[in-house]
Amino acid sequence: MSSGPLAGIRVLEVGTMLAGPYATMMLADLGAEVIKIEPPTGDISRQVSDSYFASLNRGKRSVCLELGTEEGQRRLGELVAESHALLVNLKPSAILKLGLTYEALRRHNDKIVCVALTGFGLYGGDDPAFDYVVQAATGIAALTGDPDGPPTLPGYSSADNSTGLTAALGLLAQIVSGRGGQIDVSLRDVMLSQLNYHASAYLNDGVRPQRRPNGAHSFYVPAQLFPTAEGHLALFITHDGFWRSFATEAGLTAGAQLPFATMAERAERRDEVLALVSDALATDTAQGWEARLKPLGIPAAAVRSLPEALEALPEMVVAAGQYRLVGSSVRIDGYEPDYRPPPTLDEYAETAQQS
């Protein structure tokens, strides 16, 4: 048994591809026993690549059940009776048809926590809800990219990952409450909630969000990507103290005079500020600026590729059997996750037969 903070917690997963499996893998990293319920053909992500499957399913067990059969439902009931939670990542119609809800399963265990992770809600229909589709539908793509170019999607599955984390949070909250029940988490709702300050500005002040060059922030100036003598630098000046330190290091002060001294002035005269900062940053490389600004406490980082980022943070790379993966982002004093490889198909059934 794991000595992690979730030791003794058993979570069942009926998940596919990314969002659901990522949620339960985070729980497994924290010591929960996660049993992945798969059809005889396995989670479809097994067909993508072994490394893809490993990146979302390390540390779990696998059991094959035909949930559409009487025998599959019988075995599901037995597992539910011995578990704390069930997380399901399927179409709403499949969740309801297969009886993977609290109302259907409470007869086995009235404290079971059932999480439905869907595109638009458990009763929101079966419209396709892939990550990129949801980003387009919720305004994220419209906010991303150059103002003069087309809408752009991030280079990774931000909706799936964010929804997985939210589902894990909801699952744990209900377990802590000591009550069973149904939890409904959708990709659409999660991504709208993450547009928090943009949505608030529109709902309360009528301010429509807009794309800005180089991913510039709506309120803070300067806070965006800048080209340098070599490479790009992310600079994020959120208050006047940061600005004063940056302006001094960049040689923008004339004697004791600090240009654009207040946040309000910088926001009002955005174009002038950006022109001044761009000229200054062009005098050194992105790596050079990062080295100069970090000791001053100024938020700045050179744009790195993923391989460069992994090389810079070797402690985040862990071994799970034969796989090298990015480890858990949750650090707990005195606890080190047991990074085990992903399960072979129906591995839990084989283990149960041996015991």
Automatic annotation (TrEMBL):
EC top class, as a word: transferase
Keywords (alphabetical) are: Transferase
Location of the region described as Disordered in the Swiss-Prot/TrEMBL record: 336-355
Q: Name one GO molecular function term.
A: formyl-CoA transferase activity
Q: Which domain of life is it from?
A: Bacteria
Q: Does the keyword Mitochondrion apply?
A: no
**InterPro entries from the xrefs?**
CoA-transferase_III_domain (IPR050483), CoA-Trfase_fam_III (IPR003673), CoA-Trfase_III_dom3_sf (IPR044855), CoA-Trfase_III_dom_1_sf (IPR023606)
Task: Name the EC number(s).
Answer: 2.8.3.16
Q: Which residues cross the membrane?
A: none
According to UniProt, the name of this protein is L-carnitine dehydratase/bile acid-inducible protein F
Gene coding for it = frc_4
